[in-house]
Design a protein that fits this description.
The complex is a heterodimer of chains A (about 325) and B (about 325). Chain A is an alpha/beta fold. Chain A is about 35% helix and about 25% strand. Chain A has an 8-stranded mixed β-sheet, with helices on both faces. Chain A has a 4-stranded antiparallel β-sheet with strand order 2-1-4-5, with helices on one face. The radius of gyration of chain A is 21 Å and the shape is globular. Chain B is α/β, with parallel strands linked by helices. In chain B, α5 (about 130-140) crosses α6 and α6 runs parallel beside α7 (about 190-205). The chains are: A alpha/beta (about 325), B alpha/beta (about 325). Chains A and B meet through α7, α8, α9, α10 and α11 of A and α7, α8, α9 and α10 of B.
């Protein structure tokens, strides 16, 4: 039995304009110690996936399908039961460490909270443990820093506090939603390395969400590319980056400025913008931006086809897409 | 030799901090410590660095949006520093700015037509017929429809909003556009569209860019020359190709190395920076980068390195730039 099994997860948000289908038919399976990356642009449903897993969807959100953590369906749990799981067996690192930490409490107090709540430690034990945790995530001078408020720490240190918080109860699954987007490259490097090492040591599973293909390529074993609320391509990271298949993934890769490509080439652009989640097209959601789209794409949703072992792609014209990769699909 | 559009010399900006007590010495944030560079007509000059290195302060000072402590900024030979607001007003048509956040920089209550036409007020009175024509012309040059003038900013996506902001900067036909992180709030596929647009506009109108970004790949794609800033000073400057191919300052080397690369066969060993950016509130002797530098030795603590030419048109402020260029990053033996 897999540690985490997500089957046919649908998330929809009710808005004034009608229901927005943020996530559609998502399947994820994660073993202990595995790392999964979720990539996509804003509005593709990656953050909603994370929030649904943690049971933290906004009030107007509804879910369908199953999310089973070691056989228990999290979607059937009450809020009270979820409180015991959240922060304890599943923990999350948020994108913006400034807004996700409470500005009126010291960081020490915030790290102590889950320790006392979930592990039932006394105040002094929790305090000692907090200092240990802060040392582990590489905050200099933890015995002094423990009394600091979030605004007294730098962005990188705040993110380290978030990681300490997430690690406090040794969760089975760590979800990191754009953990380094607000940070500089050199600090990003340190934080990703830290998360990597902790995942290795603790043997927990990691779900890393990012819009940066580079971050995903270097830090995950498996990857899922999301577009318009659904996974369009998934498989082992090395295989996907060595063998990009879906037209969207190819476009995303080509649109990224890469170091060393110089100024001679021109960046490939994907025409158009991401689909409106409220009025999703009937067929493939990528149809109006795809260079290979035919009438079929507009009317019927493509099924999943397997390119290589474990490498799955959702596209009608997969052979054409792979053949066209050499000279580039986008002209 | 083409003419110089922007010449910045020895620009200094220190922000005073509130005094801790009545008799305490005033403290400062040393945001810019003598920055000098030149941009030639029709070129793009990139400025990279981590947050807090003074990139945005530099942009605001070049745009004369705040008082400068000392130094000079010359745009098309005209001194900008020390001028009053009213004296600057007619000059502003020659230099325009594009801001980072396309959501915050457009007034939500105004129509696109009004937003884009606003800088024309600085030129003086124009007949409304001509105004409408120029708005339509500039909107189509950034890839928007002339019929978009009556819409409001919220009806556009992030990439389109950034196009509106670029149109607003272009309408006065400026020689210089200062762009402060214009694509960092955009998605990858949209970012590519805006970057290509910036390039096309340069080809067709010959504008000069001062382009600020923390993303090295973006700078490499767009800029002819780059300056790397660290704690309010330029530590390395040169042609993009030279600087990226053989960085002469350890900081540049580490920055380039820290960029994650999207390719199969991940995980590489890299030299990481220990510690974070040192505070900007104290002024010390020696190299500003010494606390984080893997190549540091005693000399770096004693002498402040100055910017000197290490190769033709390639400047670096490091005592060991020669070694850095020959052997890459290593500990001094």
């Amino acid at each position: 039995m897999a540690l985490l099994d997500v089957e046919n997860l649908d998330v929809s948000l009710s808005t004034a304009m009608g229901p927005a289908r943020a996530v559609r038919g998502l399947n994820i399976s994660l073993e202990k110690g595995e790392t999964l990356g979720i990539v996509g642009e804003s509005g593709c449903g990656k953050s909603m996936t994370a929030l649904a897993l943690m049971g933290l969807l906004p009030d107007n959100g509804t879910t369908e399908g199953t999310i089973s953590l070691q056989g228990e369906d999290l979607l059937l749990k009450s809020e009270k039961e979820m409180c015991k799981i959240r922060g304890n067996r599943m923990a999350m690192i948020f994108q913006e460490p400034m807004t996700s930490l409470n500005p009126v409490h010291t960081v020490g107090r915030q790290i102590m909270e889950p320790l006392r709540l979930h592990r039932g430690l006394s105040k002094s034990e929790a305090f000692k443990e907090t200092i240990g945790l802060m040392e582990r995530v590489g905050i200099p001078n933890p015995s002094e820093r423990v009394h600091n408020y979030p605004h007294q720490l730098s962005g990188g240190q705040r993110q380290r506090v978030m990681i300490a918080l997430a690690l406090s109860c040794s969760p089975d699954i760590l979800i990191a939603d754009e953990p380094t987007t607000a940070l500089d490259v050199t600090i990003q490097d340190q934080i990703l390395e830290l998360i990597q090492n902790l995942v290795d040591e603790e043997g927990m599973a990691l779900i890393l969400i990012s819009h940066d293909l580079g971050v995903i390529a270097e830090n995950t074993e498996k990857v899922a590319v999301m577009y318009g609320g659904a996974v369009v391509e998934s498989g082992p990271t090395d295989q996907i980056f060595g063998n990009l298949a879906h037209p969207y993934t190819q476009g995303l890769f080509a649109a990224m400025p890469k170091l060393g490509m110089g100024r001679n080439g021109r960046l490939t652009t994907i025409p158009g913008t991401v689909p409106d989640l409220i009025n999703l097209p009937a067929g493939c959601t990528f149809t109006d931006r795809c260079p290979l789209a035919t009438d079929e794409c507009g009317t019927t949703a493509p099924s999943i086809s397997t390119v290589e072992a474990g490498h799955k792609v959702t596209c009608h014209h997969i052979d054409q897409a792979i053949n066209g990769r050499g000279e580039g699909l986008y002209k | 030799m083409s003419k110089t559009v922007l010449k910045v010399s020895k620009l200094v900006r220190h922000y005073p901090l509130p005094k801790e007590s009545l008799f305490a010495d005033p403290k400062f944030v040393y945001a810019l410590n003598g920055v000098s560079f030149e941009i030639k007509e029709g070129k793009s000059f990139g400025i990279v660095g981590e947050s807090g290195c003074g990139k945005s302060t530099l942009a605001r000072n070049v745009m004369a949006l705040e008082p400068t402590d000392s130094g000079s900024v010359q745009i098309l030979g005209e001194e900008v520093v020390g001028k009053t607001f009213n004296e600057l007003r007619p000059l502003r048509q020659h230099f325009q700015m594009v801001f980072q956040d396309p959501y915050g920089s457009l007034d939500p209550h105004h129509t696109v037509g009004r937003i884009v036409a606003e800088p024309l007020a600085a030129i003086g009175k124009l007949p409304s017929q001509e105004k409408t024509e120029r708005v339509a012309e500039v909107l189509s040059s950034v890839g928007l429809k002339p019929t978009d003038v009556d819409k409001y900013p919220h009806e556009f996506s992030g990439g389109q909003r950034q196009r509106i902001a670029i149109a607003r900067a272009l309408i006065t036909k400026p020689e210089l556009i200062v762009a402060d992180e214009p694509v960092s709030a955009l998605d990858v596929s949209v970012q590519a569209q805006v970057l290509n647009l910036l390039r096309d506009l340069q080809d067709s109108f010959g504008v000069t860019y001062m382009f600020i970004s923390h993303d090295l790949a973006v700078v490499e794609y767009l800029c002819d020359e780059v300056a790397v800033m660290y704690l309010g000073s330029i530590v390395e400057k040169g042609r993009t190709e030279d600087l990226f191919a053989s960085p002469a300052h350890p900081y540049t080397g580490i920055l380039l190395d820290a960029v994650p690369k999207p390719a199969a066969g991940k995980k590489r060993k890299r030299i990481q920076l220990s510690g974070s950016v040192t505070g900007q509130t104290e002024k010390r002797s020696g190299c500003a980068f010494r606390d984080r530098c893997p190549m540091v030795d005693d000399r770096c603590k004693r002498e402040t390195p100055t910017l000197r030419e290490v190769a033709p048109d390639h400047f670096a402020a490091c005592h060991y730039s020669k070694k850095m260029m020959e052997h890459g990053l290593s500990k001094p033996s």
